Amino acid sequence: MKLNHLVLATTLVALVACTDYLDDFQDKYDNGNAFAEISSDSDNGDDDGSSDSKLSSSSKGNDDADSSSSKSSSSSVADQENLCKGGTVIYDYKVQGKLGFDLQFFRSDYSSTLPENERGIVFSSSEEKDYAGFRWNGSYDVSSWEGICIEYTTDKDVSLYLGDSEKTEKVNLSANDNFKEIKWDDPAYKENISFNDFRKFFFDFSDEINMVISRITTIAEVDTSANSPTLDTTPCKGSIIYDASEAPNYNVFGYGFVVYDPLSEKEASSNGITSNLSQSGSLAMQLATEDKPVNIQSWGGFCVEYSSEGSISADVVSPFVGLEASLIYKEKPSTNGVKSSFRWSWNENEGLMEKQKDNGVSDGFSIEKVESINFTSHSSNSSITIHKITTLNSDVHFKCDARKFSQRAEVSSMHSPSGHPQDQ
Questions:
Q1: CB within 8 A of 249, min separation 6: which ones?
Q2: Fewest C-beta in 10 Å: which of 13, 121, 211, 323?
Q3: How far is residue 159's CA from residue 181's CA, in Å, rounded to a whole number?
Q4: Statement: residue 67 has pLDDT above 60
Q5: Fold of domain 42-226
Q6: pTM for the full model?
Q7: Which residues touch 406 (CB under 8 Å, ≥6 apart)?
């Protein structure tokens, strides 16, 4: 028993030394620079899929779209023969709540609920700047589509944007027409948009408007099984924060993972830390305590090797401000169980905060005061396995690796020197 107490005492001394270093590490970067300056395309809806399904609520202003003028004009489209001939259906008003090709709906007010009635998808806006549309969490190769066809009615002209991972191209939808074919081989698009790296198409509403979309199809017949998100399988190569193959229960700061979900648990192995999450449930990797948050500016960002099912975001969380934690978030593509990599650069933070400011979650957030990195579910049944997490910069050095101390303390607290469970 004395030997066991000696082991515990030695471990505690090491942990105190490590804690002192981490405090010094934080102080070293307290005067670091703020977020890197980047340009934001949030005004024209050029999002990266990072924020659009964080909150799920009904789209605003649906009552406005039920005005008699909008109802009569849109019914004439929905009741007539299909104007978009051939192709593969992406959306049809006759099949409520369904989007083809794994597309997701998004809107500038962070709604993710498809605003439908019996006539189709209803867009009604009284905002000076509003946008809504369809996107994937990753990139899609849509070159085989040869284009899209949209059946619609609108009381004013609307701008439609096609977007790849870097840029967008505008297409005009006239209020005098009720359908539009957009072909990829049109010189106006094919020189500027990469259709094998396609991410979204969305509508920009710059004035009060009522619009109904009754049907969307591809131009060509498409084998839906041939399309899948482009996943990043490049290994994470920065400084190790967490590596399940070395220490499945702890990160370099000596903390473990916590599940914030009454219906879920976590399971750790040399393959990773796994949790099946219900909606809004989180698997959180603790980095510090609330009263001593850590400065992670020097990381440059982070990289996660993971596999997942369902809709999940990564959240970088600052300590509570009032009753709410302050955070910014970015959606992670579902990998359908395939091991993949996810990267988040701090250069994205300013744009993410700008897009998320309206829902208030980023109020008070600071990359210099971070408590945890959480992985949060936004669907009723999601699963995630974290295999490895590294910094994005490769030159980040942690003088003290607290994983070995945490592991020793865990072993010492469970077993006596003889290998039998220690007396409580």
A1: 256, 257, 268, 273, 406, 407, 410
A2: 323
A3: 14
A4: no
A5: Jelly Rolls (2.60.120)
A6: 0.52
A7: 15, 247, 249, 250, 254, 255, 256
Give the DSSP H or E segment for 405. Answer: helix 403-414
Provide the residue ranges of all domains of the chain, joining segments of one domain with +: 42-226, 240-414
- Encode 256-276: b = buried (16+ Cβ within 10 Å), e = exposed: bbebebeebebebeeebbbbb
**Cβ atoms of 152 and 173 closer than 8 Å:** yes
**For the chain, what percent of residues have pLDDT higher than 70?**
68
- Mean of the per-residue pLDDT values for the chain? 75
Q: What letter would DSSP give residue 381? A: S
Say what the pLDDT of residue 303 is.
95
What are the tens digits of pLDDT across the range 89-99?
999 998 877 88
Q: Give DSSP secondary structure letters for 167-219.
A: -EEEEEE-TT-SEEEEETTSHHHHTT--TTSEEEEEEEE-SSEEEEEEEEEES
Span of 62-71, 280-289, 338-347 with lowest mean pLDDT: 62-71
48-69 as b/e: b if 16+ CB within 10 A: bbbbbbbbeeebbbeebbeeee
Q: Is 247 exposed, middle or buried (0-12, 13-18, 19+ CB in 10 A)?
A: buried
Domains 42-226 and 240-414 share a fold: yes
Round to whole Å and give the CA distance between 87 and 63. 33
Other Cβ atoms less than 10 A from the Cβ of 366: the count is 14
Q: How confident is the model at residue 225 (pLDDT cuts 50, 70, 90)?
A: low
Other residues' Cβ atoms within 10 Å of the Cβ of residue 44: 17
117 has a pLDDT exceeding 80: yes
At residue 344, the 3 state secondary structure works out as: strand
Helix then strand count (H, E) for the chain reads 5, 22
pLDDT score of 39 = 26
Report how far residue 298's alpha carbon sits from residue 156's, in angstroms, rounded to the nearest whole number: 49
Binned at pLDDT 50, 70 and 90, residue 325 comes out as low
- Which helix (H) or strand (E) segment holds residue 77: the answer is helix 68-78
Q: Which CATH superfamily is domain 240-414 in?
A: Galactose-binding lectin (2.60.120.430)
Spatial distance between the Cα atoms of 220 and 199, rounded to a whole number of angstroms: 19
Give the count of beta carbons closer than 10 Å to the beta carbon of residue 399: 9
* Three-class DSSP category at 329: strand
Long-range contact set of residues 92-99: C-beta below 8 Å, sequence gap at least 24: 92/214, 92/215, 93/118, 93/119, 93/120, 93/121, 93/214, 93/215, 99/134
